[in-house]
Amino acid sequence: MIRAIIKFVLKITTLILYRVKVVGKEYIEKDKPYILCPNHTSNWDPPVMVAALKRNDVYILAKEEMFINRFIKWLAVKVHALPVKRGKQDVALLKNCMKVLKENHIVLLFPEGTRNGIKKKGKIQNGAVLMSLMSGVPIIPIGIQAKYIPFFSRVKINIGKPMDFSEYKDKKNDKNTLDELSEKLMNEMIRLTNEKI
Q: Fewer CB within 10 Å, N or C, the chain?
């Protein structure tokens, strides 16, 4: 109930502040698990994504620093945010994500690991691909086209076709395979971010 109220407030807030356009909503089917991978340019990205998606079973990976403040922690838990220890292997988090996906929910993470990671010519993290290979769940790349300042500007969310990496499931421990597939994911995220919609 509280989550539904928070999502409603987020939706109203984003509708007031931004003109949100979503393309490719049909790729996120009802009652199917997905790993959503948008690019990351602003702290506005997570709430805008939550508000824009029709499904209410989205679990967001968020940096653990967000959970220090008591109110933010309470809010994060209510919207199904999961703390991430950046720069470390987090087996407990991975197991938690596997459970979420097994229950046909959605995991949303920003594989750049930081804001504007791709623009800074950095490589995306392998976590999303590893999660996909372990679970058999497809990745949906997303390009967020937004300049959140000034307010009342247009925000575009370009959702791509699911990427199925299940044929590589036996290579989940092969770093070269993880790097190769992560690069494919990154290229698709870049394409969706730059595509005119």
A: N
Which 8-state DSSP code applies to residue 124?
P
Alpha carbons 99 and 95: distance in angstroms, whole number: 6
pLDDT tens figures, 182-196: 999 999 999 999 999
Report yes or no: 197 and 156 within 8 Å, Cβ to Cβ.
yes
| Whether CATH 3.40.50.170 fits 2-194 | no
pTM (two decimals): 0.91
Cα 64 → chain centroid: 16
CA distances from 36 to 39, 83, 132, 162 (A): 10, 17, 11, 9
